[in-house]
Amino acid sequence: FLLYKMAFVGYLVTPKSNESLRKNLSQIRKVPRNFTNKKSIFQLSASGNQQNNEVSDALNESDIEARKIREEAERRRQEEERIRMKKQMKIDRLNAIPEDAEAGTVEEFMYKDGVKDILEQLDNDLVGLVPVKSRVKEIAALLVVDKLRRNLGLDTGVPSLHMCFTGAPGTGKTTVAMRMGQILQRMGYSRQGHLVVATRDDLVGQYVGHTAPKTKEVIKKAMGGVLLIDEAYYLYNASNDRDYGQESIEILLNVMEENREDLVVVLAGYKDRMDKFFSFIPGMSSRVGNHIEFPNYEPEELLQIAKVMCRDLEYEIAPDAEPVFFEYIKKRMTMSFFSNARTVRNAVDRARMRAAIRLFNKATDKGSNGMVSKQELMTLEKSDFVSVEELAARGDNAIVE
Question: In what order do the strands lie in the sheet with 163-167?
Answer without folding.
Answer: 195-198, 226-230, 264-269, 163-167, 290-294
